[in-house]
Amino acid sequence: MKNAKLTNTDKKEETVIAIKGLYKSFGELEVLKGIDLNLYRGENIAVLGKSGSGKSVLIKIIAGLLKPDKGDVKVLGKQVDQLFGKELDELRLHIGFSFQNSALYDSMNVYQNLAFPLTMNVKNLSRQQVDHAVAEALEAVGLTDKILDLPAELSGGQRKRIGIARTLILKPEIMLYDEPTAGLDPITCAEINDLIIEVQQQYKTSAVIITHDLTCAKNTCDRIAMLIDGTFLKVGKFEEVLNSDDKQIKDFFNYNFIQ
After folding, report:
1. CA–CA distance from 192 to each of 18, 41, 52 (Å)?
2. Which residues are bridge partners to 176 per DSSP?
3. What is the pLDDT of residues 217-233, one digit of tens each?
């Protein structure tokens, strides 16, 4: 049975990501044009937009993988573009980044893929502690029986789940999901959506979910932000954005519902 999303009464209005006046260009191409957004603790927010709208650029800036041209991006109170080396690495320990392609190491089995970030970032762990952490993360995504499989032996949905498990092994406070349902069949999409909600509840995470999948946004998120032409045209609950009178938003929803 699908878990219910957290309600506003379940969350404290504590800001874990604060974005103000964010700009990013690549040459003459303006991608982000002064966007503002807050993510609150315990909240899932979806950033919706068509391909090439700057959604993935946004979460790469949040994770410190790209530098903004202008504006402030604070994660857990830290201004990300002012962090370097050890300080940036320490912040990233609190951020789980679920890549669109899962980013698993092909030559490592599932156990090794999950153990790698743990042993690289947490020193002096015993084998028993590593085994327990791997087992716990695999149980969270429902794939304990795949512990010795190679990525090539997994389905697309299973690779997505293992990718999420690898981020969970460090117990992040914030999850960044980049197109979590891309390329998956409808049944597997529903399973990934349920998993995102389970992660929110079990690990008490806050999440930014980059997607153009309306079902994913509706079923997993407390709010959605509509990114069009480098700006947020509307931020609010799914139905509020769906019922917007803005023609560009209506066109986006109509096209995706037709699809």
Report:
1. 27, 21, 23
2. 97, 208
3. 999 999 999 999 999 99
pLDDT tens sequence across 54-108: 999 999 999 999 999 999 999 999 999 999 999 999 999 999 999 887 789 999 9
User: What's the length of the chain?
Assistant: 259
- In a 3-state reduction of DSSP, which class is residue 140? helix
Nearest residue to 39 via CA among 178, 189, 175:
175
Q: Which of 176, 169, 182 minimizes the C-alpha distance to 140?
A: 169
Angle of the 186-203 helix axis to the 156-168 helix axis, nearest 10? 10
CA gap 185, 149 in Å, rounded? 22
Task: State how far Cα 254 lies from the chain centre.
Answer: 25
Hey, CA dihedral for 84, 90, 95, 97, is it positive or negative?
positive
User: At which residue do the structure tokens 């690898």 appear?
Assistant: 166
Measured distance CA(189)–CA(209) in Å, rounded: 14
Structure tokens at 23: 């700009």
Reported as type and span, the H/E element at residue 8 is none
Would you list the domain boundaries of the chain? 103-171
For residue range 111-131, what is the model confidence (pLDDT) as tens digits?
A: 999 999 999 999 889 999 999
Tell me the C-alpha distance between 19 and 183, whole Å: 30
Strands (E), the chain: 15-26, 29-40, 44-48, 70-75, 78-79, 95-98, 174-178, 206-211, 223-228, 231-236
Contacts of 26 (CB under 8 A, 6+ apart): none
